[in-house]
Amino acid sequence: MLSNMINKRGSKIYQTMMFLPYFMSWVVISYFVYALLTPEKGLLNGLITSLGGDPVMWYQEAKYWPFILVILNTWKGMGYGMVMYLASITGIDPSLYEAAVMDGATKSQQMRHITLPGIKPVFVMMLILDCGKIFNSDFGLFYQVTGQIPASLYETVSTFDTFIYKAMQSTAPIGQTAAASFFQAICSCGTILFANWVVSKIDHENRII
């Protein structure tokens, strides 16, 4: 949609607005989240109570946090993905679109037969690399945004990275944290290699290795 906007100045403004959260620290975002979710004076609880509902203890209800964390991670990372794919789209030969228009292709047909095949290599590469992040987590997202992982949320939001950090702060032996870090690295490497192997079987040209 951004690549097809006629108003290029507006497109640049939208790109900047989408990319800005990527540069924001999770510490800063955690304060915004707290302002929304704090039980006493949070904006969401204020809206809920004004509509006749009961305030929600967000930091004590673990069931809400998978959705909250996914939304925040998507919102913060959307700009980075936008730049990657928009750069790929701008690299597609414009003559292909001109020929498609002369043949009477609609926007949806242009997207299906020109745009998507054009960004396919980048999409596959990003997919393979993201598979390696399955065993990793954004420490700031899981630790700072949740308020340093209270006991009520531990079973839901605790990850390898937060476990290692808390273990290093406690009296846990160094071997335990080293083993957890090594296991995490091995699993991340394994998922990347497995994803690359699957891609090589489906589309040999777009594999990374």
**Roughly what fraction of the amino acids lie in strands?**
under 5%
Cα end-to-end separation: 32 Å
Report the biggest beta sheet as strand number plus sense, adding barrel if it closes. none
Shape, please? flat
Mean of residue pLDDT? Answer: 89
**What percent of the residues sit in helical stretches (DSSP H or I)?**
55-70%
Stretches with pLDDT under 50, minimum 5 residues? none
The rounded Rg comes to: 22 Å
Given helix and strand content, the structural type is mainly alpha
Helical stretch count?
Answer: 10
Number of strands: 0
Helix and strand run: HHHHHHHHHH
Explain this structure to me?
This protein has 209 residues and is mainly alpha-helical. Helices cover 67% and strands 0% of the residues. The chain contains ten helices and no strands. It has helices spanning 8-19, 26-37, 43-50, 65-90, 94-102, 107-131, 139-144, 154-157, 160-169, 174-202. Helix 1 (8-19) runs antiparallel to helix 4, helix 4 (65-90) packs across helix 6 (107-131) and helix 9 (160-169) runs antiparallel to helix 10. The longest helix has 29 residues, at 174-202.
Write the layout of secondary structure elements.
Blueprint: H1 8-19, H2 26-37, H3 43-50, H4 65-90, H5 94-102, H6 107-131, H7 139-144, H8 154-157, H9 160-169, H10 174-202
